[in-house]
Amino acid sequence: MQTEMLRPGTQAASNFIVKCGVPTFCAVLAIWPALPPTAARADIPDAKSALWAGYENMYNLQFATAHKVFDEYRQQHPNDPMGPVSNAAAYLFFEFDRLKILRSDFFTQDRKFFGGGKLQPDPKVRKAFDADLDKARQLVDARLKSKPDDHDALLARVIATALDADYKALIEKQYWQALNEIKQSQAEAENLLKVCSDCYDAYLAKGVENYLLSQKPAAERWLLRLTGAQTDKQIGIDDLRIVAEKGHYLKPYAKILLAIAALRDNNKQTAKELLEDLAHNFPQNDLFRDELTRLSSSCCG
What we know:
This protein has one domain. 67% of the residues lie in helices and 0% in strands. It is built from 15 helices and no strands.
């Protein structure tokens, strides 16, 4: 898929619909990817509501429209790092979808999750993804120089680090290389929560580290703990639930990850309930309907 198809203004982009795969986690993290403090509350300002419109399109697999919304937000708010970091998230989710990374069979089969064949990332998408991350980090640094506790900047930094870790871990399969970013994102999330306790999307980074690494074999978990990594499965699940219940931009991503976790535990009813909610809220995302059909045929009729 050419990068031009991701951008607004082309016939291909307007007609393009991809089937997505469910955060990262990362969860891998997982991304997917945190949220400005104001957006965590019910009284979301108009600017942040506009930003959410981009995420809504992203979760509906309307990537060209998502990029258009994020580009417009950047033009209107040139000093806000949430603009470019959100655009980077849309590039990452496009690759997740194109490479079928976030489908349940990828995460529930360890052979595919931790190994599998080599993927073929699109170098043009990678270049655009990196450029947006670099721009977001520049804006973060500039804002933190004048205001070290700037919530929006701190949140954007959490997201940027998590997105980079997601790309390395899930697309390039460089899990050990991604470990530093995973730990860094978790530490940045904890620092953010100290100054903004209702920035609930930040819990995704914490949940992703614990859950993802808890799925490694026992010997690897032991080595990971020696490096300071967190590998507690239940803590990871609890943190993801916080995002799924109280988060904003990353709330759907957390539900996707929880559905995957439920499937790995053979808890098909919980997975079905989460996927039904996602399918209802994002009707243009065929993945959720496909996964529900698969579940119904196997057990949960």
